[in-house]
Amino acid sequence: MNFPAPEPEPTKSVFLRHRIFFASAVAVLLVASIVGAVWHSRGARPKGTSETLPEFRRPFAQVDGEGLFRAACQGCHMSEGQGAVGAGAYPALARNERLASSRYAVSLVLHGQRAMPPFEGLMSDAQVAAVVNYVRVHFGNGYRDEVLPQQVAAAR
Amino acid sequence: MAKHSWAMSRRHLLGLIGAAAGSTVMYQAAASLGFAPGSTYTGPIDLTGDPGGASVVILGAGLAGLVAALELRRAGYKVQVLEYRDRAGGRSWTLRGGDVFTELGGATQKVGFDEDLYLNPGPWRIPSHHRGVLDYCTRLGVSLEVFTQVNHNAYLHGRNAFGGKPQRFREVNSDYRGAVAELLAKTTQQGKLDEAVSKEDQEKLLESLRHWGALDEDFKYVQGHEASERRGFQTAPGGGLHGKPTTSKPVALSDLLRSGLWRLLGNGDLYDLQQPMFQPVGGMDMLPRALARAVGDLVRYNAKVTSIQQDSHEVKVVYENAQGSGTPATVSADWCLCTIPLSILSQIDKNVGTEMNRAIDAIPYASSVKVGLQFKRRFWEQDDGIYGGVSYTDLPLQHIGYPSTGYGSSGKGILLGAYIWGPHAYEFTGLTPEERVERALEFGAQIHPQYHKEFENGVAVAWHRVPWSLGCAGMWTEEARKEHYEHLCQIDGRILLAGEHVSYLPAWQEGAILSSLDAISRLHRRVMTR
Questions:
Q1: Which chain B residues have a beta carbon less than 8 Å from that of A53?
Q2: Which of A67, B64, B72, B102 could crosslink B512 through cysteines, CB 3.0-4.6 Å?
Q3: Distance CA A46, CA B462 (A)
Q4: Entry pTM
């Protein structure tokens, strides 16, 4: 693949341990092509800077729930989903009763809320489902009804 | 002096036009007088008239709040400022050796940089058309130096481009232009442009293509003197017996196209990134520090705002100690200028109108990460010949920024080792600061192998983890502008907003200053007509 291809590349997650996972390149390329299609249909881009490198618009490469949580969520919601408080706060995902509603969780990931950015352009239906399913059964949450990619598609 | 007085009289005229007809007409008039090319800044703000003891509480001591405090006090207002941090500047921020920074989540970094070395984690460059920022630097005695954005000797790098070997911007740029010029010349000579371009113009077009693309007598871009004058020589011209240069060989168009590096050629042509750009000598926070020297006595630091309530008489702002100790206190004023980022303001209890409230809730905040790396020597200058500027890569670190100060020094230096947006920025944010530095080193060594031997220490700032901004800047979309922007700009009873998020220059300091000046101008007009 040539640089800087608009499709995601299955390498170079900043999480070293996920690289092993990505040795399984065939599966990832399959996902990557799906994610790429979703992304192109959106065309959103960060507007914080004038330089727009292709990397800014590249979707997340991770496909599993934990990998996606580490990559996309823990930056703000922290490694145990505990949230944080400064001049403002990031709500805890741990023991969060609002997550009882899977539709709420899916909508939040897709569309964001207040300062939380939308991830609809950066994750496929399968990725959104994976990360929502992961958070809803970890960090003290016990919501075992799984979200399907088709349900995510319907919520876009 | 004659020029100076003309400028003053122009300003006076513009002030009169502005007072009579509003800012749009004033801007058009300013542009037609050649005063404000590309900026809505029209010179020092003129808030004439006695505000009659009116008071304003300003929330936030970043650039927007500091500028407002300076100008409103000068105009006769009673001003007080509440600031969450223990210092002024907000995102206009510089990290130096000895500084301690604790991010959300609790990770604390003590910056290990040597004296006189620094990193600007936020804004780091000022376009020459950002006249507001530049004018405040001038008025407050903040020295400026050139920020090198475009460096033809810096690298363009792609993991799968040219075997992962970094390419000089100069070579990719020259070869791409040369190849395109040759193609277009050929097309012209084949008569394929006869319908689009007259015969007479075709001759001029050909000549311009030769000039633009460094083509030879036969309109070819080939190895030779013309091309090497652009892309550089194989052996550079030297002195004495063996000084004769040898020309270099251009890269074929198909290789260039397949490399994808052409995608990175236009960055320096962007209006916001054209040379010359500037930086304050000594760090970006020199401007807020100068402003704080002027209005610091008005600022209450370590004040975390928890509530903003207005009624027909006044605005009451409740704050508590940012460290969470002590009892809440209240300040009251006739007006409130709130410059708190929307990421935080959206969480604060406040009574503003429905439309402004919806606007405050509508803007997501971007993820962005910067990593500063201190090295024992300036190998990018000494080994690679790169003095300032930016290298671009498709590695997650995305940019490497070379310092635009201390050129040629034999001592240590700091690289901006990563400047990241998009999904990779979220990923880096989720790492510990130490891991971010480690990754920046590991990836960066693919471009500069000297990293391994020369690295000393580093610092990493992920903007979603910065306690006083919860993100880098507001991410506006066309739809959000249409639906919410005007509501965000209104004077809502006794409350109005300012900051980069209330501008069409998101993430730029100029946006913060222009929005602040616009807000206090409208506020002053309101006060004077009451």
A1: 263-264, 392, 394, 398, 421
A2: B64
A3: 16
A4: 0.88
